[in-house]
Amino acid sequence: MSFHKLPADVRQRIHEYYEHRFQGKMFDEENILGELSEPLKEAIVNFNCRSLVAHMPLFANADPNFVTAVLTKLRFEVFQPNDFIIREGTVGRKMYFIQHGRVGILTRGNKETKLSDGSYFGEICLLTRGRRTASVRADTYCRLYSLSVDSFNEVLEEHPMMRRAFETVAVDRLDRIGRKNSILMRKSSQAGSMAGGSGSG
């Protein structure tokens, strides 16, 4: 910070970021986990992140192997108050799970929606490869876990039935905020007609 002559307010934010991210204990977690066996790694990740997905209806009755596969792909991230985690119009590359904190979902013309501990957001773009339909801003310090589009697709290749479940949830969310996505709508109605349903769309 001294070398780059960063302003005092930026230095303060960096100090606070490290304090919240590492809480006084700094170590190379990825390096440590990388040395462990797969069963030990899975046991740690399951212990640390199981409560994140326990509240999600999507994972409630999912194959435990799918849940574990998702958990091992999660990456820990910290955001400070007023940070934009997602900006509307940008290409979506990650979805997020909120471990602790509160965010505001901002859509043009709609009132702000709040999400907090145990909620998730950003999954729509992982399925559509489209642009973000809303901005998400941190209201408080937020401890999140992210899942990248590449990791997401790796897991879904092994569990194709879960892709349909995610698509159904994504269509439902788009309906609630008054948006449509032709790719998801088409996939959803195809899945409905294959199942012999009328496909309400």
UniProtKB/TrEMBL annotation:
UniProt superkingdom: Eukaryota
Q: Where is the Cyclic nucleotide-binding domain?
A: 58-164
UniProt GO BP: regulation of membrane depolarization; sodium ion transmembrane transport
SUPFAM superfamilies, A to Z: cAMP-binding domain-like
Gene Ontology cellular component annotations, sorted alphabetically: axon; dendrite; HCN channel complex
User: What PROSITE patterns does its record include?
Assistant: CNMP_BINDING_1 (PS00888), CNMP_BINDING_3 (PS50042)
Annotated GO MF terms: voltage-gated potassium channel activity
Q: Which InterPro entries match?
A: cNMP-bd_CS (IPR018488), cNMP-bd_dom (IPR000595), cNMP-bd_dom_sf (IPR018490), K/Na_HCN_channel (IPR051413), RmlC-like_jellyroll (IPR014710)
Name under which the protein is recorded:
Cyclic nucleotide-binding domain-containing protein
Query: What taxonomic lineage is listed for the species of origin?
Result: Eukaryota, Metazoa, Chordata, Craniata, Vertebrata
